[in-house]
Amino acid sequence: MSDKNIERGDVGATRRLAHGVVNLRLEDVDREVLEIAKCCLLDWIGSTLAGSAEDLVDRLVETVGATSEGVSLLGRREFVATTGDAALINGTAGHAIEYDDSGLQAHVTAPVAPAVLALAEELEKTGYEFLSAFLAGLECELRIDEMTNPWVDLRAWHGTGVIGVFGAAAGCARLLNLNVEQVEIALGLAGVQGSGLKWAWGSMAKSLQAGMAASRGVMAARLSANGFTTYPDIIEGKRGFGEMFVGENFNANGLVEGGKHPIHNVLFKFHASCHGTHSPIEAMAAVLESRPLQPEEIDSIVIEVPDGMSMSDWNIDRPTTALESKFSARACVAYTVLGWDTSSLDTYTEDRLKSPEYHSVAEKISIIGVFSKTPLDWTEARAIVTLTNGEIIQRDVDIRYLDPSQRLDRIVKKFRVLASPVVGQARSQSIIDFVLQLEEQPRISELLALLSK
Questions:
Q1: Percent of the chain scored above 90 by pLDDT?
Q2: Confidence (pLDDT) at 25
Q3: 361-364: long-range pairs with CB below 8 Å, 24+
Q4: 259, pLDDT greater than 80
Q5: Helix (H) / strand (E) containing 215
Q6: How big is the CA angle at 361 (ends 199 and 306), to the nearest 5 degrees?
Q7: 266-314 pLDDT per residue, tens
Q8: Containing domain of residue 181, as a range?
Q9: How many domains does the chain have?
Q10: Measured distance CA(178)–CA(115) in Å, rounded
């Protein structure tokens, strides 16, 4: 096996990640970290319930089919599925409306929560066991995200698929009580299945990649539990994940341990669009907050973002579908100018894209990369608005800074908006109460009963 390895320290990155999965204890975890993890879960549940009615989810359910026995599909009491298929469907639904959280290069919760939730329901786990596994999966995924940032993204991989699969496998491995060596194998089996391309952004296939990562994570952990083997150094090994997905910039000893927990890298969405559009939206909103304007008062709008950003990923110049508009900074800035609520799912429609008022504003907007920043400072933007009278208004924003004291309240408010139309206000409150006291809940199945419409 030595010929499969590259030079590294005494303990490779894969083994250190596996130790983290096995040894995590909720009693040792900072209270703020636990709060963020619960916010991640609640935020994902809201997005999944709202996404469960999307056409792409209907098509996936029809293709996969239902079973007479199985685990729950969120928002669909009439269907159950195998554990792997439930992870696939719920994972796809959770990413369908483009409203779930993000990390540095990947949507963090989208691949982990559906995998761990489906397996926890099957295994009849407690809330404590689920939360331990969920947090273990998130931390594993986020540390790989940190270790490989920004190169996975810049090589046009969809990090949710290629990084998220490790988090899903890690969380499921924890639920299955695998030892360190078995977790290493589970991560290896996840790595050989991980895939995802930015080519799919703006189409149904982007959401499918989150679901596939969840489903393959379940499979990887189960295979390892059943004695299926592979090499134990998927992250740092020769021709392994780091070398193939990151390339010459990969640092085999770059895994960060200790210090600030990586869950602090999670950014929550408060606009129902690709996260890359949020800083342009907020920059334009900052201009309008300082000076209310009518569209006819505006001569031009220039949105500046960091040079090196993959603007083609989230700036479809002339979107023609509702889904494409979620990946168009130009469209989202136009919506903001017009006073259309970018936090509302109802804003993103083909009718609005065809409207004369939209086109009259969109034609005034340019998105350009100018900052000399690190390649993925996508959280920053500058709006420069020139008025018809020659006046210029400029505002800079960075969306990464959220007041921690407001985090839970904002997530709960967002959850109610997304979940109540699907399960009702009373059940929405019951879900909130359950999640906020998750570690004390005797059966995770009680949460799933609330989540089936």
A1: 81
A2: 97
A3: 361/295, 361/298, 361/334, 361/337, 362/330, 362/331, 362/334, 364/298, 364/299, 364/300, 364/301
A4: no
A5: helix 204-225
A6: 50
A7: 999 999 999 889 999 999 999 999 999 999 999 999 999 887 555 567 7
A8: 2-268+409-451
A9: 2
A10: 16
